[in-house]
Amino acid sequence: MLAEILIFVPSMARFRADYLVSRLEKSQIAALSVLASDRMIAPELERELLANAGVYNVVLRRDEVRQLVLSSPIPAPIVETYDLRTAGPWALIRDAMAVMLNPEPQVIRVIGYPVQQAGQLIEITLNTAELRVSMLDYGLRILALSALISVVTAFLLFLAVQRLLVVPIRRVVRSMQAYAQAPEDARRVITPEARVVELRIAEEALQSMQTQLTNSLRQKERLAQLGGAVAKIAHDLRNILTTAQLFADRIEGSADPAVARSAPKLVASISRAVSLTEATLAFGKAEEPPPQLRLFALRPLVEDIIEGEGLAADSGLVQPILDIPPGLVLRADSEQLHRVLSNLVRNARQAIEATGKAGTIEVSAGEDDAQWWIRVGDTGPGLPPKAREHLFSAFQGGVRRGGTGLGLAIAAELVRGHGGRLELVRTDEDGSEFIIRLPKLAAESDE
């Protein structure tokens, strides 16, 4: 609408100006005809000349003399005088709108320059009725042409919007609907084809999201299948270990002193293996049994783990360092904490042994008013960047080739079951350090 106004209004002003200039030119021709005949013309011819020019009278100024060349009775007083010699654009627009909005005929005087230097000025009087009719007719033609142009433009714009926006958006919607029916099918991932830059970026983002989601679904499906297989294996393994546990119980009654000394450790190892298989079954069900909290001394538990991992203070490539107060007692599930610390110590030992160089594993512990803490540090090569991103995620945080990444995932879950946190403090070329934080407040509330 604004474009229509900006086109229509100046066009009407220009039409009015051209109309008046045309009347001035016709009046000048009629006046020169009269002057050429030494003003010897019949009244009928004078009326015909005025009617042909569409004016009431014509005044021509030549040689500093103002002459009334043609004249006829004026039916009404002159309402307004318009000087086209000094009229600017805004004045022309204002005067044109005044004629358009005033339906009453008026007599006006118009002044302008004669053509071909036929004098200093020419002045005419005319009625605005015919001028208004001509302007209205011209305005209707302008509006009709504008409407036609608008319709054609709207149609072309509709086609452009359909081709550039609607069709690509519909294609994106159809692709999303098809993908939602079978998100695991990689063939249903959208292929960016839009020509509009913004839509192209949106399609590329959707393609990336669908690709990642498809890969995640495939991975979760494989993990679910693997979990089912692990659960079945753990179930059968638990039955085998239960049988081995029965035989180990019989060995405890042996008269051989060496067997009697080794039997308790064998029974304890088999019991932990049974607990581990049961925990694996529980993990396959996406749940971990709640911890059985009780008070126990931490140092004997850690010493048992160090001995179970084959670490000795006087021999071997890996040397243990214990910095745990003998009297430190904490409240936790000893079996679950054994699993957590065993996993951390085993990972540290394997990392050092993989380098082929001597190293140390330090286990320290302490407490304050709010929590107990246990640190496990080593002098190994540190964790690779890829392992740090998903360190505590099942099947994603594995460090060793062939590792599943379940160890740290289960350890973190067990610590969270105590209301605590398992954190990686540092990892670099000088080694890695983990810390276990167990809150005392949660423990006290259980008493």
UniProtKB/TrEMBL annotation:
Catalytic activity: ATP + protein L-histidine = ADP + protein N-phospho-L-histidine
Membrane-traversing stretches: 142-161
Gene Ontology molecular function, alphabetical: ATP binding; phosphorelay sensor kinase activity
InterPro entries hit by this protein: HATPase_C_sf, HATPase_dom, His_kinase_dom, HisK_dim/P_dom, HisK_dim/P_sf, Sig_transdc_His_kin-like_C
Top EC class for this record: transferase
Keyword terms, alphabetized: ATP-binding, Kinase, Membrane, Nucleotide-binding, Phosphoprotein, Transferase, Transmembrane, Transmembrane helix, Two-component regulatory system
Domain Histidine kinase: from-to ranges: 232-442
EC number: 2.7.13.3
Alphabetical list of PANTHER family matching this protein: PEROXIDE STRESS-ACTIVATED HISTIDINE KINASE MAK3, SENSOR HISTIDINE KINASE
Protein known as: histidine kinase
Organism: Neotabrizicola shimadae
